[in-house]
Amino acid sequence: MSEPDLRPVVPAGKGGRRSSLTPLVYLLLIVFAVTTTFPLLWVVGAAFRPSDEITRRPLRMFPDPRQWTFSPRLRARDIMDWPGFCAKLRDQAAAAEPSPGARLWSRLPADARTLVSNVSEDAPPGEEQESDLVEAISAALRSRDLYSEEAFETVAVPDEAKDILRTGVQEAPERKVVRLNRLLLQAAYAREIREMRGPFDNFRKALSIVPFARFFLNSLLIALVVTAGQVTTSACAAYAFARLRFPGRDRIFLGYLGTMMVPWTVVMIPTFVMMKVFGWIDTYWALTLPAMFSAYGTFMLRQFFLGIPREYEEAAKIDGCGYAGIFWHVILPLSRPALATLALFTFIGSWNNLIAPLVFIVSEEKMTLPLGLTRFQGLRDTDWGALMAGSLMMLVPMLILFAIGQRFFTRGIRLSTGKG
Amino acid sequence: MAGTRKERKVEALAALFFILPNVLGFLVFMLFPIVASLALSFFQWSPLHGAANFAESARFTGLDNFWSVIGAHRHAAGDWHLNDPFFWKYLANTMILMAGIPISIIGSLFIANLLNKKIKGAPFFVTVFFLPSIVTGVATFVLWGVLLNPESGLANAMLDLVGLAGPIKDLAASLGVENPLLWHKSEMWAKPALIMIHLWASIGGYNMVLYLAALQSIPQDLYEAAEIDGAGAFQKFFHVTWPMVSPTTFFIFTMSLIRGFQGGFTVAYVMTQGGPAGATTAISYYIYNLAFSRRFEMGYASAVAWILFIITFVLSLLNWRYGRRRVHGEFGL
Lengths: 420, 333
What we know:
The structure holds two protein chains of two kinds.
Chain A: H1 22-47, H2 51-54, H3 82-94, H4 100-106, H5 110-118, H6 127-141, H7 159-167, H8 174-188, H9 201-209, H10 212-243, H11 249-259, H12 264-278, H13 284-288, H14 295-306, H15 311-318, H16 323-334, H17 336-352, H18 355-360, H19 369-379, H20 384-412
Helix pairs in contact in A: 1-20, 3-4, 7-8, 9-20, 10-14, 10-17, 15-16, 17-20, 19-20
Chain B: H1 5-40, E1 43-44, H2 54-57, E2 59-60, H3 64-70, E3 72-74, E4 80-82, H4 85-97, H5 100-115, H6 122-135, H7 138-147, H8 154-161, H9 165-175, H10 190-202, H11 206-216, H12 220-228, H13 233-244, H14 246-262, H15 265-272, H16 283-293, H17 298-323
Antiparallel strand pairs in B: 1-2, 3-4
Helix pairs in contact in B: 3-17, 5-10, 5-11, 7-15, 12-13, 14-17, 15-16, 16-17
């Protein structure tokens, strides 16, 4: 049996003739395009909005930007319950013990205090009063000493705020101070002040639960090494199989072909034992080295090399090129589409590989994205926003790579079945 | 191009240089594991119980592992029982999950046919259709898990929106079967759900591109001759297109068959953990569980893996012998 071989290609255009059915053809193609891309578009929308909004009905394809708060600046509509907020502020200010309310109160000007005192269930603030109050509170948000340990003792200070506190409030830029104070306020008045919501909250959350950045780098590193290795070893061997004569060549090649049908499950178990013996369990070696050799890649490139006219090589030979020179200066430059296609498939195969890290890797800091994502799914099965953010982080590099590579690929892949 | 003896020697030496890394890797990471796996399947060995040392803890059991997988034993009452009923169940699962293959092949050919009709923007469509097959993996399975969530997933919400969710549920209830809208969470409908996901990732993929290439290489005069004979669109398809693409169909079918038997691991691991009630456990997932997850039964797992290999091999051989006759034209190695 022969894998259809890759050949350099003629541009498209010699298909059938245009007919009255053309609109129907376009319609079908568009319908199919929409159904196939829909899930991929949806994940983009879902990654940028809060989990509760993903399940909200009626359905929305893309997030509502009005949900987002890009700056920590307080707006009138961020205070969800004016009477409740003002009452709580008053009560805390009147009490003797230190509290967030007392802290805030002491930083409000006199006229703002009067406004706060006058607001009640029966007398909600008017629009003008609201904006005056928001302005006063916003001024307080810029103060560098709103936080005091005693005052916020009873409040769960969020991690992000702690980070800012750790680096020092006095030296921090005003933007950070405002963000810190806003975080503190919404922690203290969780029911009255709207939470800040940014488009990247899901990503932030996902990154705080498992080290996605680390997974990402691991995946990238491993995929790059595997791709470079596999393309190199395959191209070298394919050249020998396609062009050089040596004893046992065809028998060895047939051996390669024969193993292509062997299930990965057969190879996996002894490989695991071998990695244990080598002491490579929980190392990058186990993820890279065995994946750098591929019978399929060798086979595919050999088929392509066979299609290159020998005349080019003869010319190079006359110019004094050795075998290495022919390989480097003739074969490889002529095979760019095939090499790019193999590289693309190898990279994505490595990027998506779940089983190898699952079997070989134990510690979290060596995990790759597929394993990390399944782990994350196990921890936060219901947090869809964060889950979709994780998925998107894994999808985007593949999409980018495909966008770059598809030029080579849709040309290089114009294959034809036939003689091998 | 017969060279002198010295030239031949140099050529062979150069070949050795080019081939060495690959052959070494092939021997160490492919051939040796294959042989070792076969050897392992004759032993009972689990690195769990005390010794990781193979020589000390393994017990040679001959063909016992194989018999334990595919054989049967007789109970005191006189009736026969399968030694490993799970194996047979999961083998059946694997084959049922492959039911999508013919649909996928027909779909690919259909789409390729549309793309071959002198369409403006064909490269754009090819790229878009290809996307799912490129990205399919853990990330898309996580995504599908969310989309098909029975309580608040998007799929059911959309069906609800067009008023289909209720009727489907009622129909299933009146037939006395599980609601199909439980998707992969239902024992009955998990396999169809997984097949659907597979179709999403495979129709527009590599197979479609192969078909497109095959269609483009069909000589136009065949169609013109058929038209002169008064053939309609259907006749042209069944008497020209279908026979002419049959080598491609054969190739795709063979590859799908091989992949189908080996597949099903990642989707099961991510979406269903092989459930509900083992409904989506393919053989590959079973082998993984045997070897790496529950019992660490390396010998037994190797035997199952080899049985899977033998089944794949025999079916491919049968397909090769009998399928090839239906293929138009030459199709040699």
